[in-house]
Structures are given as structure tokens and as C-alpha cells.
Amino acid sequence: MILISTLIPCPLVIVIAILSSSASHTDTATADESFSIIEATVDDIKLAFTQNKVTSRQLVQSYIDRINSLNRTLKGVIEVNPDALSLADNADRERRDNEPVSLSRLHGIPVLVKDIFDTKDKMSTTAGSFALPQGSIVPRDAGVVTKLRNAGAIILGKASLSEWSGFRGYRQPTGWSARGDYGVNPYDSNLTPCGSSSGSAISAAASFATVTIGAETDGSILCPSSLNSVVGIKPTVGLTSRAGVIPISPRPDSIGPICRTVSDAVYVLDAIAGLDNNDTATVPMSKYIRSGGYAQFLKRDGLKGKRLGIVRNPFFNFSSADVRNAFEAHFNKLRQEGATVIDNLQITNVNEILSDANTELTALTAEFKISLNSYLSNLMNSPVRTLADAIDFNNKNPDLEKINQYGQELFERSQATNGSGTKEREAIDKLARQTREGFVKLMETNNLDAVVAGPGGSNFPESQFPRILAIGGLPGITVPAGYTNQNKTPLGIFFGGLNGTEPKLIEIAYAFEQATKARIPPTITSLKYQTY
């Protein structure tokens, strides 16, 4: 759930391909050939259900066919649920037997979840690693999976990821796992898909499912969403349950949707947010859950009256004039839509935060060992019960897990910790101070509803902004904001806020999306997969 490239630079896999971005695409036939799963939204599908243009079985089969056709190249899906068609049949029966208005928005909708979410079914939960054997039994569904099932959603399968959520080794490429291979960005195969929720973002962009779910510790929802030209919501930590999810740390871990539209992402957030007795962090955060849900904040005029702060340095520092011009046009659009834009603001300690990876790693490595050992101890029928067992498996299977190429330094650094002592507590206190004296101070001093950020800076096109939100457990949303003129690299715009301000962020993001309509779906014309 961490974007390691924000902490330690890692090599990119080289993939040769010819890709193009176009609004045109080839339809996937279902019962009614006028309906296509490509780019289909939740609302499109619900309408098609009522018009008898498609059934859940036909919908699921169409997604499976598309996965079978394209996943061998894109590697966005690690496993398809063998019971998906049976679950679809159940949804069709329930729809026949009930009034449509009595069913939730996600009823009969196929969802892909990242391969760190426990599912009490025939699928495995492995974090992309062979160390967690296929066939090991989890005690129960993850909390958010339970909520999705209760909403009538169909768990279509598991999305690929950066192995162990990117927390195994410094040299580990984003989007790679031993089980899932190298995930490929559907817009440009020479461009990283980012991670660690790479497969969720790839799958959303490529229409492998209606909606997907990811997880983030530091950048792992927001970065892949931005680079795959989809919408990602990283909620306030604790707004969504982390129970039954292979963890990095309960302090910053957050579960959220990755979808093609803001409305779909919000529908998913409505389904998964809320109290879970198996995750104590959801208890205090439940005060932020709004009566009536989050969909009520999908307002076309949502930018009207908002106060937005623009932090140009480093988030809008671009070497390319066309990228600079694109974002200047977006700033003007925000103003035209009724927002008050306060420009050229500064996060006073931004350089300290972005250059201080070691403080975050000091906290995370200790928290990871404690959290992972707790998770593994609850597995049934698994020989790997501790982090030490996982390290030992990798050492005994170096070729299978590419240990010589990608290492497991973060595993080893975590194993060397001995609980959360003085050093770790000081690191956590420092992160809290950095948030308080930086982002929070900026928001409160300027009475902002949100900070606007882009992918500028030294890691372009990967934004450094998610780090600012991650260390404080703060919420953020990224929305497609166009493409570079030179190579059509996707660009995302980020909106970040204080804890519990999802309603404001949704209003802002939805109004921006509707005003710009910047997203263009990827079209794969020819693709050759090769690694070096």
C-alpha cells in the first residue's frame, strides 16, 4: 500500500508497445449489442438492467472475456473468482424477485479488489507473493468485502499489485509481483502504472470491471489512479475498515475506490464506509459519516463558493510548457465554476517532509512487523505465520520471488525491529508535527476547503503530494486532468483536505470532472510485452 518510489527510487521495467489514446473503442456484445461494458458506469448498467439490455451473468461474462483477451498483456488481474457467474445468477434472480428501487446501487455490479483483501471463498489472498500459498484459508471476509457483498456487489476477482504492497525491497518495481508479473499501463507501456494498487487502476482504466478497490499507505491509490487516468479516493484513515486486509500499518493505511468516474467512486465509498467492530479506528471516524451518504454531494455546482489553495512549489513545477498551460487552464476553470482560488501558497515545511523518507520508514518498518505478524497468525492452512517465515520462504525460493533482482531489504529492516520503542514513537510524533505545522496550518490559516496539487516536481509524472496527505492520515481525491502533448502521458489533478472533509472534496472533484470531461479511454492497437 505504499509507493516506494516516493521513499527510495526503484528501476522501471521496460515494456515495448504501441499504444494510443482514443475515445473510440470496440464494443463487447452482450444480450443487446447496443450495450457495451467499455467505459460503462454504474448508472449505465443499472439503466441497462431495467431496460433488459443486459443481465448480471452477461455482464460478468463480458468482463471475463475482456480479461481473458487483454490481461495476458496488461496483467491487471491476478485471479478471477470461479464463482463469479454463479453470483451473477443470484443477482439476476434477486432483481427479478424484487422491485429495482429496493436494491442498492451496487447490486449486481462486478468489483475487482486488490489481492490483499481477504475473501472467504475459493480465491486466494496472497499480496502477489508465492509465500502465501494458494489455498490458505482466511477466517472471514475483509470488512469492506462484507460491505460490498451486503450491497449486492459481485466480487469478480483479485487485482494485481506491487508485491506485498510495495514493502518488500527497495529495488522492487512498482506494479510487479511474483504471482501477477509486471503490470502494464494501458496508456503507455513505457510509463509506470505506479503502485501499489497498480492492478486496480489498470483494471479500471481498461474496463476489466465496473469498479475496483485499492488501498494506500503512501500514494498507492492516488498515484496509480493519476497515471492510469482514473479517479481515486483515499479516504480519511478509519473512514473505511482495514480489517481482513494484509497490512503495512494501521496508522496510515486507508481503503478506497479506484473507478473511471467520480460518481462511481462515490457510490463505492457509500457502500464501504462506516463502522466495523473488527477495526477500532472506524469507531471514532464514524462521526464523519454523513446521513444520506456521500452521493448527495455529487453536485454540478460543487465548486461554487469553495476556497481552494494552489501550492505551486513543487506540485506545479513542470519543465514542459504544454503541461504548465494545461494546468493554468484548469485553474481558470476552477475560477469560472465559482471557486475562489488563492494562488502561490506554500507549505512551509514541504521540503522537510519530502526529503525525510527515513522518519516515515522508521515508523512503518516497526508497525509492519507487528501488523503483519498479527494478520498471518490468524490464517489457517498456511505455513507462513510470521514475517520471518516470509523472509525464509523468499530465501529458499530466490528465483521464484526474484530476490536477487529485487531484494527484500524492507522485510529484513522490519524484521530487525523490536516493537514500537522510543525511536519509533519519536518518528510518529515527528510525522504528526510535520502535518500540524505544514498542511493543517496552511488549511486553517487560509480558511481553505481544499488544496489543489499536480504531478509536478522531481518525480514527474508521479506526484509528491500524496506523501503530504499520507503522513497525517488525511483524505484526497485525484481526477483525470488531461494528457501531455508529447507522449500522451496521463495527468491527474489532486484535491486534498482535512480529516472528514470528504463531502467538500467530492463536491469539488465532481464539479471539476463535469466541467472538464478530460478523461479519454485507452485504446490498445498493438502491444508486445518484454522485460529486460
UniProtKB/TrEMBL annotation:
Pfam family, one: Amidase
Keyword Signal in annotation: yes
Keywords tagged on the record: Signal
SUPFAM superfamilies: Amidase signature (AS) enzymes
Amidase domain sequence ranges: 59-454
Cross-referenced InterPro entries: Amidase_dom (IPR023631), AS_sf (IPR036928)
Signal sequence, renumbered to the chain: 1-23
Gene3D superfamilies in the cross-refs: Amidase signature (AS) domain (3.90.1300.10)
Protein name: Amidase domain-containing protein
